[in-house]
Amino acid sequence: MDFNRIVDKLESTDWSLIMNMEDANEAADNFYTILETAIHENTSYVVPKRSDRVIKPWITPGLMRCQKHRDNLHLEARRNHYNTFIQNTYKRYRNFLYALQRKLKTEYENNQIQQNKDNPKKLWKSLKNICNLTRNITEATELLSVDKDPDSSLNACNEYFTRVGRELADDTLRRLNTQEDLLAAEYKPRVLCKDSSFCSQRILMKLVRLLTS
Question: Is 105 a residue whose pLDDT tops 70?
């Protein structure tokens, strides 16, 4: 909301029409309409980025800036795998921030308990928030009813998840009109390694299946 532009808009408005009205209710309605229009025309709505939202009450603006700096260091470390200085800088800052977050969270939770210790209702609410007991727990009734009884339903679910990976991989090979060996041969790892089990075709195919699942 741009208050300066709203004030300018109201100052440039001709109020003589409202001042000369004999009906007070009509004058009030017109005044409200002019004011509402000025506010609406000089107000913009901005959706904040997720990184700028305070998700937890113990996260301070300073801590959010530290988190952004950690993320920037992480990106820099991913771009420079072999730079020892950059890797150590990121890891030390990450560990420092992790310890700071735990400290701030613990202090906030202790303050909540101390403030509500004489109010059982608020104290219990604080404890539920601290222990993550506020989430609704739902039973997997739908999965247990896909077959005639719970045991058969669980077996059917397990069978589905044991074959879904293979089916997705086969479907990918059909869409690409290729074979496993040919697709594995086209895969080029970011870091070449010699005499390592991680470079075997079996591991490469698992990576391809994970990426296509």
Answer: yes
